[in-house]
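Not sure how to ask, but would you mind making up any protein sequence you like and the tokens describing how it folds?
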Amino acid sequence: MRLLYLAAGFLFLALGIIGALLPVMPTTIFLILAAAAFARSSPRLEKKLLDHPRFGPALVRWRERGAIAPGAKLMASAGMAVGYAGFLAGARPGLPGTVAVGLAMAACGIFVLTRPDS
């Protein structure tokens, strides 16, 4: 099981790195998942991730208080809005698809916005 968590940690870490480079993909959620997987497989890699100068503080805030920085909340909300607009323009869904995706995005947005600040 430890090897499975280790593999998942590296997969999530890779997705987080890709997300840091591409504006359409999230970063932090994958790093949170990587840290959780490394906590179960490699405390050394978990510590390395939590001590990272750029991403470590956000991961520690999330782990300790479930907190999201106000700037990150703004970026996440803007990203969801742009993603929803792109979905509407690109997929041209019918009413059920529009409503379903809109409700899912709204639920995610509410979750992000109701987390404590840093």
Summary: The helical segments are 2-21, 28-41, 43-50, 56-65, 70-91, 95-113. The chain has two domains: 2-65, 70-113. The CA atoms of residues 3 and 80 lie 34 Å apart. The two ends are 34 Å apart (CA to CA).
